[in-house]
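Methods — Computational structure assignment.
A single polypeptide chain was analysed. Its primary sequence is given first, followed by the predicted tertiary structure written as structure tokens.
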Amino acid sequence: MDKSDITLERMRTFVRVAERGNLSLVAGELGIGQSTVTRHLQELEEAVGAPLLSRTTRRITLTDEGSRYYANSVQILRLVEQAGDEARGARGAPAGTVRISCTAAFGVLHTSRLIFDFQDRYPDIGVDLSLTDERVDLVREGVDIALRLGPLTDSSLRLRALGLSRRQLVASPDYLAKRGRPAIPSDLSGHEGIRMSNVAGSETLALQGAGGERHMVPFAGRLRVDHGLAAREALLAGRGVAPAHRWLVDDLLAAGLLETILDDYSLPSAPLNILIVPERAGVARVRLMVDFLAERIAGIPGIEKSSSQR
């Protein structure tokens, strides 16, 4: 076998195996049999003339040669994809698939609807939307961009700030009629709190008064949930008080189904960002999606510009 046997198909298979570390997962992702994945890898290694992967019963890792070959392969595949994008762009028809990971509740209530509008504008672009509050490895999972709420730690990805997500304390009118309306932060100690179990420090609320004074208030209750939509349902059912993102409950506030409380006190806002896999940033359809989402998300209730955006 010679270098002419280094096909793009085999190279793509190798790249995804390197990123996923699992042959069966890659087979399912590519829609081919696991035996085909194995054959692609063997043929590529024979053509290259060096072992690229080290396989044990437990894991698959890159050899030193494989690490270098992986980095070059990613660049080659990106250039091939960009060339295709430019050729299609010359005909005015961007195409392909954009893979997006998004914070779950925000994705259900807002991102999914924006994607519908995006596809109406660009009918040849497919979208694969994954909703999760977990911090997934974008490269490993084959994701192009991610919308993430809260602090970020992965500095290897490109970041585009979308703004700050404002939060407010809310409860249902029925709950407040039964339990009374808190007038000052310390009144919260006598109320049922709906807490997020996947948010660190949810047992304490940091409130800031109009004069800048800070109040650290214990926040407890019998119900903890790990999904924003579950918290929304609990609020509607009158189960307690919660610090909710404005975009999560704005329609319920407008309809009078929920009410804000302690309006003279503010909660810290959470940053909302788009993360972009660097190797995907130059792909035309990915750029179109990032620009579209950034423009439209700015108009969602409760999303405010950060100081760096003003």
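Note: Residues 94 and 285 are 6 Å apart (CA to CA).
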